[in-house]
Design a protein that fits this description.
This protein is 25% helix and 24% strand. By secondary structure, it is an alpha/beta fold. It has 9 helices and 14 strands. Helix 3 crosses helix 4 and helix 5 crosses helix 9. It has 2 domains: 154 residues, Rossmann fold, CATH 3.40.50.620; 119 residues, TPP-binding domain (Rossmann fold).
Length: 307
């Protein structure tokens, strides 16, 4: 098996290390500044191929043919770029796609169904393309340096037909709408916030801080936020640099989806709840009152939750 990792300016997406481990350490990095990304994955990779080119299905197919890996099944992380690229790659190679898998081997693929309530097992008999769910597998590290090979882009042949799609520019992400799994800063709210209006306010505060809004499962169950904003084992696995929580107690289903944030700030009336215990800065106060004060400092309309 071979991991395919799309790289943006030297940064591999969240879940890349798990994907490389699932592919037994074999990885093709394609994108910009792949050498830097290779350094960040050296602890899990045994063999790395670098392709300094736009991560398109044609480029990847040509690269794996050039290095003699056409019979390998391909695994991509279920990151935004991975989810976009996988179906294009499967179509280009005329292979079966297994989206949202939780375990992949050469002869068995397990895929989560019904929001994780059921698991479907498949036994493919030909090479396939799969995306691997983030935050489920874990990683296996090793001390040996990986073997790194550069695939020259100049030797890649041109596509046989002209595509009707061209890339004009890549814009920076909007923190208020970007995928939570790739958000560097997250402001999260839990059951300690007292109404659905608070989450409109929280969204505006998050936007003012150039951060993404996250919530706990109880909030999505109440219908106060969309499921795509839910952090945890039954929601989105995240890995932010900064995580700020308002009224989040820290149930294990939530904290197990947090990854390892560099900095955690929590506001809660319970000084001994799990979320406060794992924080770098724990503020013992009413989360609603603190959110009001922060909104005023940022110039966000407290009543309407809009700036």
């Amino acid at each position: 098996m071979l991991a395919i990792i799309p790289v943006r300016h030297g940064v591999a997406p969240v879940g890349s290390d798990e994907t490389v481990c699932e592919a037994r350490g074999n990885v093709l990095l394609v994108g910009t500044d792949t050498a830097t990304a290779a350094t960040s994955l050296a602890h899990v990779a045994t063999r790395i191929w670098l392709v300094e080119s736009s991560p398109t299905a044609h480029v990847i197919a040509t690269a794996i043919a050039q290095v003699g890996l056409t019979a390998d099944s391909l695994i991509l992380p279920a990151s935004p770029d991975g989810r976009d690229l996988a179906p294009q790659l499967a179509h280009h190679l005329r292979r079966t796609l297994f989206a949202g898998s939780i375990a992949v081997t050469t002869d068995k693929v397990s895929v989560a169904r019904q929001g994780g309530l059921a698991i479907a097992d498949f036994t493919p008999v030909t090479p396939f393309v799969a995306t691997l769910q983030i935050g489920i597998r874990g990683i296996d590290t090793h001390a040996d340096e990986p073997v790194i090979t550069t695939v020259e882009v100049s030797s890649l042949s041109a596509p046989s037909r002209t595509s009707s799609v061209s890339s004009v520019a890549v814009l920076p992400p909007d923190a208020s709408t970007m995928d939570l799994s790739e958000a560097p800063r997250i402001v999260s709210g839990g059951a300690g916030l007292d109404s659905d209006q608070r989450f409109r306010q929280l969204q505006s505060v998050s936007t003012a801080l150039d951060a993404s809004m996250g919530v706990t499962r109880v909030i999505t169950d109440r219908g106060w936020a969309e499921h795509e904003r839910q952090i945890g084992t039954t929601g989105v696995i995240v890995q932010p640099d900064l995580y700020i929580s308002f009224g989040v107690s820290g149930a294990v289903q939530h904290t197990s989806g947090l990854g390892q944030p560099e900095h955690i700030i929590s506001v809660n009336t319970d000084a001994h709840c799990p979320m406060m215990q794992m924080s770098d800065l724990a503020i013992v106060a009413d989360a609603n009152a603190v959110l009001d004060e922060l909104a005023q400092l940022l110039g966000v309309n407290v009543k309407e939750g809009a700036s």
